[in-house]
């Protein structure tokens, strides 16, 4: 049987399908073409048998089997030929449909017999390993097509099907991390074929019950790590959405690209909230649906929540809240309620039937109709819903009429005495639970009861208060605040409720608060020493909350300030460390309202003494430093003793061995630097050093176990994020900030050298010096370009009024500091560090179109010449030799010499043969006027970066700052 003859028979059929519509796998169109192919092959086989004189029935059974085998061999060769033709075709927008059609038809025809599948699949696997990326991608595409037909073929046994699928899977796995984006995309599409199959009708796909763990893990890797947006979307579409993969799909709701987030949102809609999503996953979906980061994904998820989820829970918001868990996900539940209440009614009516739409709003209204159940009890989810609904009502534009608003609130909320009774009842029960266990264990029941109490306290913000109800509420709140058994979590809510009693009369609020702390102080003096600290802590907590919620009018109430101070001051000298720390925090808040200069100085001296006392626990000292920093930022004079204390203490504590302390003090340094209260290159150098310190850059599982939440001060990850924003923002503030940042390299190199020496002694991790210098250079260059581009657009520095023009670039400034440091410290540096510094120095690129400071170029040439004579390591000399040669060829003009314009032009055209050192520029077209302008600038004073070296003044006054360049020259 001649394959060429069979090829001539089948070629018109394949050509016809190629030029037809693309069709769908197992659709009527392709089934018809497959039938035509087999009808033509059977006819060809019958003609061949007649020609050869062979018959299927009359001849022996052995001849029949030989005839079938010969026929299959011939047909497999033809199918492989069609595959080769398709895969060798140039894959373009116009040809991809034809290639896909041939692949589809070959796979469909081959799936009818094991021999055919094995032949074409082996050929595709061979092509998936070739060097040509287009061929690898096409081979993966065909493997995916073949797998689809293998899964739906009823002509293969289960053993044969499993064997073929395993063979195809093993061929695809290496393509997961293929270097070509198109190949990884083809892998994602092909892998998706393993997890879905066509129905018998061929009109839709259904999930495949069988799982391939290796391919599923490959899709998960692609979804998380593939840099291509298209590939991540393809991985999302191919990945089977199950309970095991739902976490990963939901995590893509936070993808950096909107298209991926929208694709993930569409998939989340296919998950059942009742059976396939847990509380954490539901909360993540709500968070993604309430953000304005991407309006498209917000619309998709809002539709899912308001129509899909609400329909699943029969439009009952209380059941939905219980599913998500109010205690564990309070913020997400609040956002959920706002989504349900504020959804666009007209849009919602298009997603629900008329009956469902009416039921939706009826259920929302009935859920908030009453606080108490029929048994007079409080359900947490219902209470939470009512509280958020009341809060939403006060800002809802649909209820602006005051009368209507009050009517709705009156219908929702019970009277004040009932609220007070329920609050005291739950608070007392919570106290009893905590007393029975001696406050050592917090259970789920405790958290739920605390949540009930807090939500009840917040309802007092929306109740209508009359004279009788005001008195009842005031009495209840003062009674709760006057007991040290009241949990600390409820104190702030009680103080705010007491604030609501007096309305706009803050003076009455302060009097009521003073009455409470006075009673507590009396109880403290009468009590035994074992509970003395509890009363003082409660006094400090109440005063702190009062200061937080009070307006600036407190600064004018000097008598109230002094009475508060008399209650707080004894806590500073208390034996209990926790009490002293709370007293420092309370004084910090109180000090923000101090109007008297003498009183402010008294507070400042007390806080400075605490911060400077080395016998105090570090927590107390750091708390005092934060208070001093806040006061300084509010306008304390830079010449005051407070700022002097900060200038002395902050650098010392930045070298502390405890990570938590270093991170907290670093935040203080950030605040003072960014506010320009302090301008010190040494501080900046230490912050840059911390940015690359292994204590902060370690993975989360290697940081201390007691590491706090990201929002808490002292967390290393929090400091990393702050520093990544601080350095670029600080550099673009003004000239002085930029100069101070660039001038930090000398100190930074000293810190890196000390760390390197410690590493050799103790085996600790070193700082990546090259990366540190590059980071400073790139950050300074970006700020330099940004502000100079502003100047070219006619903008001036917004803060200092100075223009941001520099005649010396960051690379030149850093090169000078590197050269000076190597000269001074070469004997103390390890050979590896010395080579790193010389290599970085040798890579310095100087742009003569930008560099106008010939004085600094001359000084750099002198330093390099000195290094050339002092360095003994051949590798170091080799690194800097090119830059030495370039600078030695410069014709540096004599200072104040304006006559030699020709020399200036000559210098501008200097370059090396290999392009190293100074960048090449074509100045042939420059006119004499431009050259004259450059020569004239030789006489101008150059602006140079400041450093804290040999400088005692560290305030923001630039005229007192010395510069490393002046020191070097």
What would your notes on this structure say?
The chain is mainly alpha-helical and 969 residues long. It has a two-stranded antiparallel sheet with strand order 1-2. Strand 1 and strand 2 form a beta hairpin. Helix 8 packs parallel to helix 10, helix 16 packs across helix 19 (380-395) and helix 21 packs parallel to helix 23 (467-481). 38% of the residues are buried.
Q: What is the terminal-to-terminal distance?
A: 93 Å
The chain-level mean pLDDT equals 79
Which structural category fits the helices and strands?
A: mainly alpha
- Helical segment count: 45
Strand content: under 5%
> Can you give the helix content as a percent range?
55-70%
Query: How many runs of DSSP E, i.e. beta strands?
Result: 2
For the largest beta-sheet, the strand count, sense and barrel status come to:
2 strands, antiparallel
Quaternary state of this entry equals single chain
Question: What is the alpha-carbon Rg in Å?
Answer: 39 Å
Shape: flat
Strand line-up across the major sheet:
1-2
Parts with pLDDT < 50 across at least 5 consecutive residues:
22-26, 57-64, 698-708, 794-803, 895-969
Sum up the structure in keywords.
2 strands, 969 residues, two-stranded antiparallel ribbon, mainly alpha
List the helices and strands and how they pair.
Layout: H1 3-18, H2 28-52, H3 61-88, H4 96-110, H5 114-127, H6 133-152, H7 158-172, H8 181-192, E1 196-198, E2 205-207, H9 213-225, H10 229-238, H11 246-251, H12 258-268, H13 279-289, H14 295-312, H15 317-324, H16 330-342, H17 345-351, H18 354-367, H19 380-395, H20 402-412, H21 416-436, H22 444-459, H23 467-481, H24 488-501, H25 506-526, H26 532-549, H27 558-572, H28 577-591, H29 597-612, H30 618-633, H31 641-653, H32 659-674, H33 681-691, H34 694-697, H35 716-731, H36 735-742, H37 745-762, H38 769-792, H39 810-825, H40 831-842, H41 854-870, H42 874-888, H43 901-908, H44 928-936, H45 964-968
Antiparallel strand pairs: 1-2
């Amino acid at each position: 049987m001649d394959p060429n003859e069979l090829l001539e028979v089948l070629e018109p059929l394949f050509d016809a399908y190629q030029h037809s519509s693309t069709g769908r796998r197992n659709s009527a169109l392709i089934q018809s073409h497959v039938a035509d192919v087999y009808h033509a092959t059977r006819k060809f086989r019958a003609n061949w048998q007649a020609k050869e004189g062979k018959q299927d029935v009359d001849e022996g059974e052995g001849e029949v089997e030989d005839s079938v085998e010969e026929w299959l061999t011939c047909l497999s060769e033809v199918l492989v030929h069609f595959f080769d033709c398709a895969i060798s075709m140039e894959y373009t927008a116009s040809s991809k449909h034809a290639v896909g059609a041939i692949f589809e038809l070959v796979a469909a025809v081959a799936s009818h017999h094991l021999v055919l599948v094995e032949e074409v699949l082996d050929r595709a696997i061979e092509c998936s390993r070739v060097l040509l990326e287009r061929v690898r991608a096409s081979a993966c595409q065909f493997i995916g097509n073949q797998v689809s037909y293998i899964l739906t073929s009823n002509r293969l046994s289960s053993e044969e099907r499993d064997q073929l699928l395993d063979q195809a899977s093993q061929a695809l796995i290496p393509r997961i991390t293929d270097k070509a984006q198109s190949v990884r995309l083809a892998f994602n599409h092909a892998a998706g074929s393993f997890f879905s199959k066509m129905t018998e009708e061929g009109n839709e796909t259904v999930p495949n019950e069988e799982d391939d763990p290796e391919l599923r893990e490959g899709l998960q890797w692609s979804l998380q790590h593939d840099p291509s947006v298209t590939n991540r979307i393809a991985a999302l579409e191919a990945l089977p959405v199950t309970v095991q993969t739902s976490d990963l799909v939901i995590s893509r709701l936070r993808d950096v690209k909107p298209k991926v987030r929208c694709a993930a949102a569409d998939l989340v809609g296919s998950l059942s909230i009742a059976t396939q999503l847990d509380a954490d996953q539901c909360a993540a979906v709500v968070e993604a649906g309430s953000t304005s980061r991407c309006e498209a994904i917000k619309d998709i998820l809002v539709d899912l929540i308001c129509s899909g989820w609400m329909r699943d829970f029969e439009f009952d918001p209380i059941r939905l809240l219980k599913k998500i868990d109010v205690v564990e996900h309070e913020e997400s539940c609040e956002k959920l309620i706002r989504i349900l209440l504020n959804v666009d009614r007209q849009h919602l009516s298009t997603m629900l039937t008329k009956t469902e739409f009416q039921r939706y709003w009826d259920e929302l209204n009935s859920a908030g109709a009453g606080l108490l159940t029929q048994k007079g009890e409080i359900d947490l989810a219902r209470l939470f819903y009512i509280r958020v609904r009341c809060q939403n009502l006060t800002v809802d534009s649909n209820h602006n009429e005051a009368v209507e608003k009050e009517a709705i609130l009156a219908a929702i909320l019970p009277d004040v005495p009932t609220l007070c009774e329920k609050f005291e009842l739950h608070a007392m029960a919570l106290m009893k639970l905590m007393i029975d266990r001696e406050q050592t264990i917090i259970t789920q029941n405790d958290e739920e009861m605390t949540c009930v109490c807090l939500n009840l306290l917040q309802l007092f913000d929306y109740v209508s208060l009359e004279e009788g109800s005001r008195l009842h509420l005031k009495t209840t709140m003062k009674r709760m605040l006057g007991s040290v058994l009241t949990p600390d979590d409820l104190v702030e809510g009680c103080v705010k409720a007491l604030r609501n009693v007096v309305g706009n009369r803050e003076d009455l609020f302060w009097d009521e608060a003073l009455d409470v702390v006075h009673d507590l102080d009396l109880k403290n003096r009468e009590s035994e020493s074992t509970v003395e600290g509890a009363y003082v802590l409660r006094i400090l907590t109440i005063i702190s909350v009062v200061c937080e919620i009070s307006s600036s009018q407190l600064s004018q109430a000097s008598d109230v300030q002094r009475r508060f101070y008399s209650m707080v001051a004894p806590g500073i000298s208390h034996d209990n460390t926790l009490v002293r720390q709370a007293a420092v925090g309370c004084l910090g808040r109180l000090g923000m309202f101090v109007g008297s200069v003498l009183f402010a100085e008294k507070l400042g001296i007390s806080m400075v003494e605490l911060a400077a006392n080395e016998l105090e626990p570090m927590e107390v000292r750091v708390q005092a430093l934060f208070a001093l920093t806040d006061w300084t930022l509010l306008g304390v004079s830079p010449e005051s003793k407070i700022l002097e204390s900060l200038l002395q203490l902050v650098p010392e504590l930045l070298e502390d061995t405890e990570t938590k302390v270093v991170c907290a003090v670093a935040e203080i340094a950030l605040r003072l630097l960014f506010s320009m209260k302090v301008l010190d290159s040494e501080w900046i150098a230490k912050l840059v050093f911390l940015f690359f310190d292994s204590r902060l850059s370690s993975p989360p599982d290697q940081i201390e176990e007691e590491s706090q939440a990201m929002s808490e001060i002292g967390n290393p990850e929090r400091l990393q994020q702050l520093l990544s924003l601080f350095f670029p923002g600080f550099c673009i503030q003004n000239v002085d900030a930029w100069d101070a940042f660039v001038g930090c390299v000398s100190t930074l190199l000293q810190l890196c050298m000390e760390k390197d020496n410690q590493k050799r002694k103790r085996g600790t991790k070193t700082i990546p010096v090259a990366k540190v210098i590059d980071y400073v250079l790139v950050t300074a260059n970006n700020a330099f370009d940004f502000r100079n581009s502003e100047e070219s657009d006619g903008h001036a520095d917004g803060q200092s009024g100075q223009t941001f023009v520099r005649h010396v670039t960051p690379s030149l400034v850093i090169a000078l500091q590197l050269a000076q440091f190597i000269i001074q410290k070469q004997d103390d540096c390890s050979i590896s560090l010395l080579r790193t510094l010389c290599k970085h120095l040798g890579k310095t690129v100087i742009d003569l179109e930008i560099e106008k400071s010939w004085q600094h170029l001359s000084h750099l040439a002198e330093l390099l010449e000195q290094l050339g004579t002092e360095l003994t390591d051949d590798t170091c000399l080799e690194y800097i030799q090119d830059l030495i040669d370039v600078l030695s060829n410069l014709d540096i003009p004599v200072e104040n010499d304006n006559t030699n314009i020709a020399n200036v032009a000559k210098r501008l055209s200097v370059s090396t043969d290999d392009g190293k050192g100074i960048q090449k520029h074509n100045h042939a077209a420059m006119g004499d006027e431009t050259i004259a302008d450059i020569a004239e600038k030789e006489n101008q004073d150059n602006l140079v970066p400041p450093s804290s070296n040999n400088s005692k003044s560290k305030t923001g006054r630039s005229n007192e700052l010395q510069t490393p360049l002046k020191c070097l020259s």
